Structure formats: C-alpha cells, structure tokens
Amino acid sequence: MALTKKASTGKKAIAKKVAKKSAAKKAAVKKTTAKTAAPKKTATPHAPKPADRGRDPAQLIDARIEELGDWRGKTLAQVRKLIHQADPQVVETWKWRGVPVWEHDGILCTGETYKDYVKLTFAKGAALEDPKRLFNASLEGNARRAIDIRQDDKVDEVALKALIRAAAALNAAKPAKRR
Fold first, then answer.
1. Strand (E) or helix (H) holding 168
2. What is the C-alpha to C-alpha distance for residues 78 and 72, in angstroms, rounded to an integer?
3. Domains (ranges, CATH) in the chain?
4. Which of 3, 63, 98, 125 is deepest in the core (most CB within 10 A)?
C-alpha cells in the first residue's frame, strides 16, 4: 500500500509541476504578445516606404521618371506636365508605397506605371463627363475610371486637361469627407 500511495503522490507532484510550467508559459506568451503587438494603426495600411518618409513628393516623382528611363518615364513626365498646366494649384503627393498622386481638394488622379502601360486613375472618374472617351479601363465601377496609356498611344492633351479641370471642379464642389 505504501508503494501505491507513493506512486500516487509522485503523479500528483508531476501534475502540479506541469500545471505550473503551463501557467508560466501562458503568462510569458501573454507578456511577450503585449510587448510585441503592433500598435493600432490610425493611418492608411499602405504607408509610404520608410526610405520615402520625409522626402519631397516632387523629388520622388522625378526619381521614378528617371528610374523608369523608357517610354513609361516619358509618358509619366508628359501627363504630369499636362496636369500642372490644367490645374496650376495641383498638389503632388506620394502614396501607397510609391504611387504619384495629384490632388486638389481631394485626389484628382494617380499615375501608376506597369510593364505595358501607364495608368491614370481618376478617383471620381465615374462622375466626370468624358466626351472624347479617354477612359478605357476600370469602367465597371461606381467611382473610379482610368486611362491606360500604352507605348504607341498618343495622349489627347486637350481632352486630358479638360478631365483634370473637371475633376478639380468636382472636388471643389463636393469636398472629400475627412475620417
């Protein structure tokens, strides 16, 4: 009987040790998680790259144009010039990990570069008149419209400037809601 009692006591002791270790592990995990948990994000989840923070957006756009070094860079430079001609008060920004954005009372358009085309996405493009039918992409949505410019495409400068002016007027009439 003594053997059975000793064995039983030994099992209880082991069970207590295991329970203590388990509780200690849980507490350590909880502490570590609390220390390493990411802070609550209040900004956009697509924050600028750390290397881009604090740099002038115009310089970042210049660098992107130079970095491309081909027809896409020339096209981006051309549309940038047209945007500034159409709306001299436009503000250049750099968002979503490397996308040039032109704003006036809200986003007018973005200038994304891909392998086969340069895309100008108008944030409120669906609400804009497009008599020259420049919009040729993102036509199915309720808000955005885009223009994909391919290597051999000629940009209708007059029509693009008219779209920029219309987007600026729309933003001025209906300011974007602040979050």
1. helix 157-173
2. 10
3. 56-173 (3.90.1150.200)
4. 125
Closest CA to 109 of 131, 82, 140, 70: 82
Question: What is the rounded distance in angstroms from the CA atom of residue 111 to the CA atom of residue 101?
Answer: 6
Task: Give pLDDT tens digits along the chain (179 positions).
Answer: 444 555 555 666 665 665 666 666 555 545 544 444 444 333 333 445 666 667 788 888 888 988 998 999 999 999 999 999 999 999 999 988 789 999 999 999 999 999 999 999 999 999 999 999 999 999 998 999 999 999 999 999 999 999 999 999 999 997 556 65
The 3 state secondary structure assigned to 2-25 is HHHHHHHHHHHHHHHHHHHHHHHH
Q: What angle, rounded to 10 degrees, do the helices at 57-68 and 71-86 form?
A: 150
- The alpha carbon dihedral of 49, 54, 57, 58 has a sign of negative
